[in-house]
Amino acid sequence: MVADKAKKAKLAERAPEENHDADQIDGDLVLSIEKLQEAQDDLEKVNEEASDKVLEVEQKYNVIRRPVYLKRNEIIKTIPDFWLTAFLSHPALSDLLSEEDQKIFKYLSSLDVEDFKDVKSGYAIRFNFNGNPYFEDTKLTKTFTFFDDGTTKIAGTTIKWKEGMGVANGVNHGKKGNKRPPAEESFFSWFSETEQKDIAEFQDEVAEIIKEDLWPNPLKYFNNEADEEDSEGDEEENGDDDDNNGEEDTEGDS
Q: What is the pTM assigned to this prediction?
């Protein structure tokens, strides 16, 4: 009994010390987290400043690039079916052109992608056409405007199809006798896809491919260089596989 009382007395003495240690640990932890948050806030400020500087540089070079793009477009106009060929050679865009679309693309004189002056606020993609038997428009445009509230406004040209040329979904089909070919998805229906979306949900793959891949270097696709690069990559992979197989055979023989 005496031993039990002594044990309880020791535990009672240690309890305040343990509580004090726990309070000390909690206090140190809170202080460390507060300091960590301050450091994180400082880092965010630096990142925001860096983003602003990147945008300033991008806007500066957009101005410098603009006349070069215009000069390039003038040269492209002298090359027959340039944009049609580039589209058909692109692994993603080629699937979007129906046979009728390809006929219309023969009248495409130039393609233009232009960021807004404030590059983070949006951009426009313009297709300029020569006079053609399909629609009245000489310019088809699709614009993407990004707002501070997180929404995206998408606007596209309402195509003025000539009589007998425009059907549902913007698909262009001519009649063959008394029969009309089955409706198929047309690239030109893309101009009517203008539902406003949140930036988090915004994804227009066609626009992104044109802006980020085709527009910077369309000559690569016109020359089919993309296919050549893929072929070279496949050959290198096959070569590596052959080397590995050879090493395995050598080890097996030894």
A: 0.69
